[in-house]
Amino acid sequence: MSNDPTPPAASFGHVLGWVMKMSWRASPGQTILRFAWTTLVNAFFCVTVILIAWTVDMVAAAWSTPALWPPLRRDLAFLTATWLTLTLLGCWIDSFLRWSANLSMRECIQKMIIRKSVALDLATIDSAGNEDMLYARSGLHYTSCGVMDACFLLYNMIFLGAALCVFAALTKPAALFLLLGIIATAVVRVVMQRWRRGNPYREFHKKWPRLNYLQHLLTEKHPAKEIRLFGLVPGLMAEHDSLWKELNPSGMRSYFGPRSLVYFTLTLAAWVFTAGFIFWMIQEAMAGRASLGIVCATIGLMPALLRIEKEIGVLESQVMSSACGIAAHEKFMAIPSRITADPSLPPVPRDLAPGIVFDNVSLTYPHKTEPSLKDVSITIRPGERVALVGENGSGKTTFVKVLTRLYDPTGGRVLVAGNNLQSFNVDAWRGRIGVIFQDFMRYHGSIAENVAYANLARKGDEGAIRAALDKAGAGGMIGGFPDGAATNVGAWYDKGTELSDGQWQRIALARAFFRDSDILVLDEPTSVLDARAEHDIFKRFLDLTAGKTTILISHRFSTVRMADTIHVFKQGSIIESGSHRDLMEMGGLYAELFSMQAEGYLLDRRSHERNPGLPVSGQTTPG
């Protein structure tokens, strides 16, 4: 994939074509109806102009023949009432059709983005540039609706231009020359908008990710503590203001220069043609070669045409703002997913024997040169409790990502029940796994919903949800809320209760237990719990994991020692394996890290004994 986060902007015509294609995809019926309605409205407008011409001619005739006034007044009253009624009804229908079409367009584009996003695997999402393309697509459904309106305005201009030509031909064919000049300059000026200004939005999209991130840092709750304590506000504000100052001159330059001279020359020519056309029509009427009504009606059409041209010029900026987003959207939709849920593949057998086998597995993340896993070979037997230990960045979480097929290995293979894991249905495999990641999700909604997300098929099983919360040590916490498990948590919704990090982690742990899977992955499952809560959970570790194949990642060696097998990671490789006793006897890295933690605990305990008011970092001893 290209490293350029901002693809070349789509052309003016391509944008219009893309938007109309999306409109048809969103709702063919609404697209046809809106075109039919636009045609009807334009026809009604032309009929109105004809009636104006007839009215002017009749009033001129009645001026010299008073007997014509009584029936003319009745006809005018009827026509006026009918015209007002149809106009008001038409405005309501037009507003409804625009709202309905825009809503369908937004829904269609949003669903396309969501479906594509959830179909992509993490390796593709992590690829450089995809996150920037996500920024480029933000708000695309809104600007596309504006472009769709511009398409119909362009259609209006073509329709009214054709109507003007007909009226001019009825007056005098020679007037067509001036009229075509007006229409030609109007069309060229609209096209020239893009040539004159280039696309300042491309420069904006390049800087938008950084601008958006700075806005996040300066306005959101999560970073508020650090940026204030570290005094980062002035520096971040200065960078934010500097980026906008860079954007404003580049946008101003696009409005001035040699191209603008050509544009304004065309504008002047359009007004000269318009004035000449109006003068011509008046001369024809004064010479008696044209009906006064036709002349007035034709001149009356001119402001409508010029108004539409002006509106198209304004809405052309929406075409330009959509251009980069559409180009990014098309590039995004063309990304192939490396891991797909093929329904034709069989599920993994219930019996995993001889187990989960990593056979010389390596993984190098996209756009990185060094592997995060290097030639890892281990076997996890069914029902075995396995612990992974090592320093940060040693490959433990990467191992879990390969196990859960969030990534496929770039070298070696993973075997399950004697077959390559990639030969099984990926969704069925993930359904066998309950997992809590160190960077667990905090779903804003009710606590029960938070837990039920692990298995939506059982979301109505309140007893199972309560049991999972009890296993995670959250039963007492839930009892403290007036609405119990129905309590809304998180600030996304109104009146949501904000939880501490430890409370969020207990809910995430309950989610892993509610999955009721035969493979349990616990990646630092108690990293933000207090010492007593952590002790309570790991005191029941053997009971909670009974009958399950368990992979535990933890820096707390007091809990790791309960595992059947411990694998020690270093720089993406497994350098030691065995039970706690075996590894301590080996005297390697595990024994070193264990002794360091034990020494720290003992120092903490002695300090507490000398100063009982001091807190103790843990409730269990690793020794």
Strand-helix topology:
Elements: H1 12-26, H2 28-64, H3 69-119, H4 122-125, H5 130-137, H6 140-171, H7 175-197, H8 200-219, H9 224-229, H10 233-253, H11 258-286, H12 292-333, E1 356-363, E2 373-380, E3 385-390, H13 396-403, E4 411-416, E5 419-420, H14 426-430, E6 433-436, E7 445-446, H15 447-452, H16 462-471, H17 475-479, E8 488-489, H18 501-514, E9 519-523, H19 531-539, H20 541-544, E10 549-553, H21 557-560, E11 565-570, E12 573-578, H22 580-586, H23 589-610
Parallel strand pairs: 3-10, 3-11, 6-9, 9-10
Antiparallel strand pairs: 1-2, 1-4, 4-5, 7-8, 11-12
Helix pairs in contact: 1-2, 1-3, 1-6, 1-12, 2-3, 2-6, 2-12, 3-6, 5-12, 6-7, 6-12, 7-11, 7-12, 8-10, 8-12, 11-12, 16-18
Walkthrough of the structure:
This protein is α/β, with parallel strands linked by helices and 623 residues long. The N terminus and C terminus are likely disordered. The longest helix is centred in the first third of the chain and has 51 residues. The protein is 61% helix and 10% strand. The strands form 3 sheets. The protein has a 6-stranded mixed sheet, with helices on both faces.
Extended strand count: 12
**Tally of alpha and pi helices:** 23
Class based on secondary structure composition and strand pairing: alpha/beta
Report strand %: 5-15%
- Shape category: elongated
Radius of gyration: 36 Å
Biggest sheet: strands side by side, in what order? 6-9-10-3-11-12
**End-to-end span in angstroms?**
52 Å
